[in-house]
Amino acid sequence: MAYWCMVALYVVSVLPDLTFVLTGERNAIDFGPRNILFDHDEERNAEQFSSKLYDLCGRHISVINILGLQNIDKIPLNQGIHAFLLLVPYGRHSSHYTSGVQWLEKAFGKGSLPYVMTVVTRWPGEKYESALADLKANSRFSEKRCHTCTRGMMDANEIIDLLEKIDVMVSENDYHCYSRLKHMKEHEELDQKEEMVKRGEILICGGLILTLYESLGSKGCIFVFNYLNIWML
User: Fold this and answer.
1) pLDDT at 1 over 90
2) Strands across the sheet with 18-24, in order?
3) How far apart, in whole angstroms, are the C-alpha atoms of residue 162 and residue 212?
4) How far apart are CA 136 and CA 143, in angstroms?
5) Beta strands at 44-49 and 83-89: parallel, antiparallel or unpaired
6) How many whole angstroms separate alpha carbon 126 and alpha carbon 138?
7) Between these two residues, 18 and 75, which has the higher pLDDT value?
8) What is the DSSP string of 104-172?
9) What number is the average pLDDT over the span 41-67?
10) 151 in Cβ contact with 34 (< 8 Å)
11) Which is nearest to 70 in space by CA: 121, 21, 110, 104?
């Protein structure tokens, strides 16, 4: 008993608290009290503590369910997100994966893609072996960041395997997390860099014109510009 208590304390102290976002196809998952991953039955742009995940692994894991939602404005800008769980139902996995990634990129920016874990859901007993081969045809798909489980998400072993894959992804991301605020700042910095490049090009052009004017005079400049216009046509 003492040994397992020490193991539990080690897991809690070493492994970080996590926040997941459920996105993708609303019908890819069966909600209900027996769902280990998410036992709430409503979409909310706010994190909800998962008591069943805590009972399963002793970790504080929160889940934000935005399945079927298009408006993400209510998610706090500084909300840290460790993983976007892109839920796609088997049978329509290829098309839903493509549209799901496109929506994530549009809604959260390209910076969200390194945090995506694809979860292919299936009915109990349904054969799904072809799903991986189908998804690998998409250049954005990462095989090691893909998991399959039943729609009810009641199998503890499947959920533990999913958490292990997410922990590997979090480690590969250097334990950083995504936030909308960080994305907005990076977007603003990129716009500023593009603006600086444009201003630099204008200054260079202005310098060339001044050099031409000093060397050739106004008539010479007009001749050169007319020649360039004719050549470009």
Assistant:
1) no
2) 44-49, 61-65, 18-24, 83-89, 116-122, 146-150
3) 66
4) 7
5) unpaired
6) 23
7) 18
8) HHHHH-GGGGGGEEEEEEE-TT---THHHHHHTTSTT--GGGEEEEETT---HHHHHHHHHHHHHHHHH
9) 79
10) no
11) 104
Amino acid at the residue 66: I
Structure tokens at 1: 């008993």
* Spatial separation of the C-alpha atoms in residues 69 and 46, rounded to whole Å: 13
Round to whole Å and give the CA distance between 179 and 108.
9
The CA distance from 132 to 142, in Å, is 10
User: 0.70 exceeded by the pTM?
Assistant: yes
**What CA–CA distance (Å, rounded) separates 153 from 223?**
75
For tokens 């039943």, what's the residue? 150
Task: Output the six-digit token pair for 173.
Answer: 């991301």
Per-residue model confidence as pLDDT tens digits over 165-204:
999 999 999 999 999 887 777 655 554 555 565 555 555 6
pLDDT per residue over 89-121, tens digit each? Answer: 999 999 999 999 999 999 999 999 999 999 999
In the block, tokens 């979090």 appear at: 170
Tokens linked to 102: 């496109």
Q: What letter does residue 67 receive in the DSSP assignment?
A: T
CA pair distance 229, 233, nearest whole angstrom: 6
Q: Which two structure tokens, joined as six digits, stand for 29?
A: 């998952």
